Fold this protein.
Amino acid sequence: MSRRSGTCLRCCLVVFAVVSALAVCGPALYWRFKKGISLGDPKSSCPPCVCDCPPPLSLLTIAPGLANLSISDCGSNDPDVKQEMEKQFVDLLTEELKLQESVSEAHNRHMNVTFAEAKRIASQYQKEAEKCNAATETCEEAREHSEALLIRERKATSVWERRARQMGWEGE
């Protein structure tokens, strides 16, 4: 039963793929074959179009006020634009260099602050690492000391146990 349903599902997917491909490519293939079959019949080609269109509208008829504008008139009423246009090329370059310099100075200040913050955090992490190392050394020393005490206690216990056995104690 499952093998038959798997085969049915596979067939449905193949049919779906073929239908999808035809839906996508079908119109383009239809028009290509239709053009290829006609073979340039003069009866099937379109007759020349007779066009009685009006001439295209000119800029003067659409907006008569725009024809009087020129580049020299551009911004003549705005005092800021007028002042900017009167500046000499050297002045404009000087101003641009000053702007770039101020931007670079701001960028340098930001980088210096960021670098100082990174150094401060690195120093803080270094101090924390030194504290951890000191604590680890202290713990290691305490472990070694405890191990030495345990060995000493085991020796003392074995001495006392041996004496007790000599006195007649049989143990647990």
User: Anything to note?
Assistant: The mean pLDDT is 83. Residues 89-166 form the longest helix (78 residues). Residues 137 and 143 are 10 Å apart (CA to CA).
